[in-house]
Write a structure and sequence with these properties.
Largest sheet: none
Helix content: over 70%
Number of strands: 0
Distance between the termini: 63 Å
Strand content: under 5%
Radius of gyration: 22 Å
Length: 88
């Protein structure tokens, strides 16, 4: 399995460090420490891979453009609500 026990146990702190690593929010020294840990820990490497996949899917999903018909319906509904509450 993994090497977490010998490297200080993987707890919430290690998971936070993993997110900081992915976000590019670590010093060079800390970046190297997390990278080294990922090379020797199957569990953390799996978490890293999973988070990379999730981030990729979210990034791809955020690029999708809503159809014009949906935008039109939303704007029409907003106008209806404004009229109903007296702000239109």
């Amino acid at each position: 399995m993994g090497d977490c026990q010998s490297l200080g146990d993987c707890d919430d702190h290690r998971i936070v460090r993993l997110y900081e690593y992915l976000d590019g929010a670590l010093t060079l020294e800390d970046l190297n420490e997390v990278k080294k840990h990922l090379e020797h820990c199957d569990e953390c490497a799996h978490e890293y891979d999973l988070e990379c996949i999730i981030r990729s899917v979210v990034r791809r999903s955020c690029r999708e453009i809503a159809p014009q018909a949906l935008k039109t319906r939303i704007m029409a509904r907003i106008s209806e609500i404004r009229v109903e509450v007296g702000h239109g």
